Amino acid sequence: MASEIDALRVWFRLIRLHTRSRLAIASRLRALDLSVPQCDVLSTLTEREGLSQQELAARLYVTKGNISGLIDRLVANGLVERRSLAGDRRSHAVHLTPAGRELARRGIEAQMAFVAETFGKIAPERLAQFEQLLIEARELVRAMDGASVPENAEA
CA-to-CA distance for 106 and 90, rounded, in angstroms? Predict the structure, then answer.
């Protein structure tokens, strides 16, 4: 029974760490007039432009409805644009504008600074151990419900 209690305590700590980290990142991004989901879209597009809204939704673990609203706001702010896909009038590819590319760069820099100030201070060998534990936990979760996790996702 003690191992169940210990596992539960660790799980709660992981959830709280995620929440605190997300709040800290959100605060830094707010200074750039960006939300975390908006920054997620912009940074994903820096890796691969021309994704459809459906592809973006799958990569970001959100619904097509959520991504549509996000893209609408980013278009209205001049940060991304929708371009028609050849041969498919109903789908659009999403591309960064120059302003979107610059804001994505600044958002990524803010996140990198947070990581350097936190995880970057953990000794490399301990960080490698932590990563292995996270991978192990991820695989246990995937084994429970692998069908709901997109193949290209890292989480």
Answer: 32
Q: What is the 3-class SS of the chain, one letter each residue?
A: CHHHHHHHHHHHHHHHHHHHHHHHHHHHHHCCCCCHHHHHHHHHHHHCCCEEHHHHHHHHCCCHHHHHHHHHHHHHCCCEEEEEECCEEEEEEEEECHHHHHHHHHHHHHHHHHHHHCHHHCCHHHHHHHHHHHHHHHHHHHHHCHHHCCCCCCC
- Tens-place pLDDT, residues 120-144: 999 999 999 999 999 999 999 999 9
For the chain, give every domain's residue range: 2-117, 122-149
pTM: 0.81
Q: Distance between CA 48 and CA 61 in Å, rounded?
A: 17
**Token pair 């890292």 is at which residue?**
154
Spelled out in words, what is the top-level CATH class assigned to the domain 2-117?
A: mainly alpha
- Give pLDDT tens digits for 56-90: 999 998 988 889 999 999 999 999 999 987 777 77
